[in-house]
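Amino Acid Chain and Its Fold in Token Form
===========================================
What this section holds: a protein sequence and its matching fold, both as plain text.
Structure line: whole-number tokens from a learned vocabulary of local backbone shapes, matched to residues.
Purpose: to set a sequence beside its fold so the mapping can be learned.
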Amino acid sequence: MSQELKPVHAKRCYACIQWDGTRSYNAELQIVKVDPGSLGFCRITRQQVKGTHHCPQFFQLR
């Protein structure tokens, strides 16, 4: 699994509080360390989706 640093303000599943995928969040630097291709469960759509998936109902990590 390749980890990347991504911005938290991107409207992607890896930066949404409703996505249960594996990631680590640094609130001070506003970045997420994640494998964007990994699957996680979306509590909005109730489906397994990749971290790079875009959703119109985005709730940013805080």
Remarks:
- The chain is about 0% helix and 30% strand.
- The beta strands are 4-7, 23-26, 31-34, 39-42, 47-50.
